[in-house]
Task: inverse folding
């Protein structure tokens, strides 16, 4: 009952939220995959320039699934999101299975804490991250069952799920290391080789198919495009790891404090400090610079100080949890094995974060936050923390996730409202030509539904007198200004009194939550005054 309830609630809350950030991109890929399934990347995509679809990161599992949904439901956002229920069920069932083995006395609180977390509840959308987590965990669960039952048939199924996870998002490769670790700890290395061999075999076979139809492997093309200095990229991911961890898992840290048997006064002081950090974000202009460089770049902000305090508390607590679990010798061999497996799993997730993350975002923390939840609940189970206390803290964790969800719902709704008001505003449309939109985000999807045309400069060039609506999403606006001479004529901002925002740090940045006081979804309307140079590519 709890597995189904958690999955249905996660799916329904996702369904009532408008499209957000990259949702429209995945939907367009789904439509193209459905139109020509044997040549899935045989189309052009992008803005302000179109490029071969194979150049954008989007492995096939979710696009095929969305393509099937489009055939059944049509372009109906709520129904398309309800169609993701199987992924939510798989995630919920996998967490319940693992909870029964890691912390049987706290299985139900762990289920709700993990499934309705600040990384999963707001970040489900139509994006890849929750499906890949669901498939990767399912592959791990079936691998565990295959060893327990001495069943190579289950190992084959685990390998199939692993292959699907890798081709949902390439971070699914992390599941390979997790499964192999479990097999090594159980002295069943052969099972690990079978599972990983099947999973990688499926992934390689698909890449060969794509290479034969699109000219190059999708994975190898993305690997080449995301080249550069890996050391510099990893260094830039360190601080976001600390700030996202602090912002997304403070309630898990409080549960860990109780499990560590810290004094009530100490837990109270730490909890009040974390609450004070959240209140400070709500009340202060958190992004306002306190110290700036000569070029105007911000060096220190209020947000930096808030997240630094939270990071010291949260990551310091988790360090104590890892040390306590690693030192435990009063349990049976099986119990100690589970402790060391969880510690190894956390190390794998951290290595995967640095090795496979292109940019910082809350969704890159899905696996890390999940394992931190497992560690905290595991220690609470071993220390025989009263289930009512753990359930109360986990309920607070779900409430904290709902805070993120409400914030992100307002952000998504603001993009829908902005698109409608932009299209229906008569003052700047009188006497104008065609109306274009430059956005990859939800604003672009709703603007197209209102009649605006996506800007694709190497396919259809605007004319002087045309209008262009630009939201704050695309980083490619500078390219547009090299082609078109633009005159700003209006700015539209959606306002509300809720103090938090998730854009853009939750989806592409170093902090998941910031103060909101200047409005949401700013859209600037430009008039095309001249063509600077033609766009030939």
Result:
């Amino acid at each position: 009952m709890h597995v189904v309830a958690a999955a249905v609630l996660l799916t329904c809350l996702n369904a009532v939220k408008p499209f957000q950030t990259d949702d429209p991109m995945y939907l367009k890929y789904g439509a193209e995959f459905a139109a020509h399934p044997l040549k899935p990347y045989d189309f052009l995509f992008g803005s302000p320039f179109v490029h071969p679809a194979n150049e954008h990161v989007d492995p096939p599992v979710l696009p095929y699934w969305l393509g099937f949904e489009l055939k059944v439901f049509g372009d109906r956002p709520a129904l398309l999101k309800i169609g993701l229920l199987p992924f939510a069920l798989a995630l919920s069932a996998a967490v319940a299975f693992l909870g029964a083995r890691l912390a049987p006395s706290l299985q139900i609180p762990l289920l709700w804490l993990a499934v309705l977390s600040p990384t999963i509840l707001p970040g489900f959308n139509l994006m890849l991250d929750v499906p890949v987590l669901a498939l990767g965990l399912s592959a791990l669960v079936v691998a565990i069952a295959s060893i327990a039952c001495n069943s190579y048939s289950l190992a084959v199924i685990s390998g199939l799920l692993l292959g699907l996870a890798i081709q949902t998002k390439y971070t699914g490769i992390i599941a390979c290391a997790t499964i192999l670790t479990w097999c090594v700890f159980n002295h069943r290395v052969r099972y690990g080789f079978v599972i990983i061999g099947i999973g990688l075999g499926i992934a390689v076979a698909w890449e060969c198919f794509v290479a034969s139809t699109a000219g190059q492997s999708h994975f190898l093309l993305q690997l080449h495009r995301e080249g550069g200095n890996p050391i510099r990229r990893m260094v830039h991911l360190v601080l976001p790891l600390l700030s996202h961890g602090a912002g997304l898992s403070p309630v898990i840290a409080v549960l860990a404090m109780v499990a560590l048997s810290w004094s009530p006064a100490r837990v109270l002081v730490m909890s009040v400090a974390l609450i004070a950090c959240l209140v400070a974000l709500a009340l202060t202009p958190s992004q306002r610079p306190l110290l700036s460089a000569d070029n105007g770049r911000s060096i220190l902000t209020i947000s930096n100080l808030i997240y630094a305090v939270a990071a010291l508390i949260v990551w310091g607590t988790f360090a104590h949890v890892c040390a306590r679990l690693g030192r435990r010798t009063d349990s049976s061999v099986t119990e100690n094995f589970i402790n060391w497996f969880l510690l190894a799993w956390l190390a794998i997730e951290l290595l995967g974060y640095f090795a496979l993350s292109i940019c910082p975002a809350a969704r890159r923390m899905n696996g890390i936050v999940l394992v931190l939840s497992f560690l905290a609940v595991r220690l609470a189970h071993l220390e025989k923390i009263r289930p009512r206390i753990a359930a109360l803290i986990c309920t607070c964790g779900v409430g904290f996730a709902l805070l993120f969800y409400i914030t992100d719902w307002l952000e998504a709704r603001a993009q829908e409202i902005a698109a409608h008001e932009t299209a229906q505003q008569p003052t700047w449309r009188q006497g104008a030509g065609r109306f274009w939109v430059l956005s990859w985000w939800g604003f672009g999807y709703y603007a197209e539904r209102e009649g605006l045309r996506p800007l694709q400069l190497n396919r259809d060039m605007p004319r002087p007198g045309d209008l262009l609506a630009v939201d704050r999403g695309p980083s490619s606006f500078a390219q547009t200004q090299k082609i078109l001479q633009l005159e700003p004529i209006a700015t539209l901002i959606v306002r509300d009194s809720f103090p938090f925002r998730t854009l853009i740090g939750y989806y592409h940045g170093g902090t998941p939550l910031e103060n909101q006081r200047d409005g949401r979804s700013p859209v600037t309307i430009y008039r095309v005054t001249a063509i600077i140079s033609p766009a030939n590519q």
Observations:
- The two ends are 55 Å apart (CA to CA).
- DSSP finds 22 helices and eleven strands in the chain.
- The CA atoms of residues 100 and 322 lie 20 Å apart.
